[in-house]
What we know:
CATH architecture of the domain at 196-308: 3-Layer(aba) Sandwich
Bound molecules: zinc ion
CATH topology of the domain at 196-308: Beta-lactamase
Amino acid sequence: MRTVGKRSFFLYVLIFAFCAGMIFLSCRVFLNAGEWASMPFNAHLYDENDRLRRGSVYDRNGTLLYSDADGYAAASKEALLHLLGDREGNLSTGVFSLYAAELSGYNPLTGNAREGNLFHTKTELTVSAEASARAYELLGGRSGAVFVYNYETGEVLCSVSTPSFDPDHVPETIETDEAYRGAYLDKTISESFTPGSIFKIVTAACAIENLPDWESWRCKCSGTLPIGDDCVTCLGAHGEIGIRDGLKYSCNVVFAELARELGKEKLRKTAEALGFGRSFVFETAHTARSVFDVSNAKEIDLGWAGVGQYSDRTTPYHMALLMGVIAGGGKSAQPYFVRKIALSPGVALYTGAEEDAPLNLSPQTAGALRGMLRENVSDYYGDALFPDLQAGAKTGTAEVGEGKEDTAWIIGFLQNPKTPYAFAVVIEEGGSGYRAAGSVASEVLAVLCAE
Ligand SMILES: [Zn+2]
């Protein structure tokens, strides 16, 4: 009996090990099969030049962007390089890297379905090749990013990062030449910048939520706000001024004073609800983290943090999303740029972007901010910047030190029901947010709204 007991014990151990092994294997197959299928030893997915097959990729209007036979389309290859990806796989957030398995024709249920002897997938992106090419041209060799999406549907219409390069002739000096610094990064999502005055929207949100008398709140701007031995400086002397006009004229004194009055804890809470301190999921890529960290800030630092300086950082993706949430009354569709990946007979291989946690903004605060940002354009920047589009926006001219020119920003949204678009433009060493970034946003949106 003792022998039988021992035997059945070993039998149970073996059965358990077998089941555990099967579960482990199934999980690995489920999670990694797509990746294995597109590995170089799987030679039938590669063409005669040893390139992984990617089928054909089109923009939102049916313009061909890439095909296995013809390579990159000349008109948009630099502009859309970061969204597509390079052949070497250095650009890890483009569709070629994120969906390598799907593009090569891999399907988790049927394996590598073939059509004749080839796997030929058709991919449609949501972006406009024409608007992207225009954005690239307008950035004009400067380092920066342009990101536009539809906050009602989530479709990304334009996503351009510079510097870029010709993927057919990768420059030999790409690693050493300062002009190509960051060329392998998609700056819309993978690089964070000092926000400067666009951060005042977050400080304003915190004031709206925490100060019952925020509409009648006033302070006096004489051009500087002394704090201890130091001071926060303003570009003008705005006199007695409230939050609404403070945002319009971008008064540093108003927002530094608000930051001190609200305090670290309340500001941190609002910033975190609006996405600071976290990264975002874009398709299956993860964005650089936006930073608002005042845990060790002195009072002067807190003042500067409230106007978007100190250690504040953010990405164009995050800022466009914030604009979409404000325009959408507290809600926005999640941005995505792949519409479909299918084998030509219509076998869908793409199941949608990964879901991300939304920003947390009440409809009341969103409504108040939307009104203020709309007034910035109608009463101050001028509607000529975005004719007939009922735009709301905020510019930023962020100081970065080290003897460098300021970082130029504009972020905003359109309320025209036909074009519910939110946008962010950043230009490193661009100088004035209004002049440098504003003109790029204005022209790119004009192209998109005419489509
Ligand atoms: Zn001022």
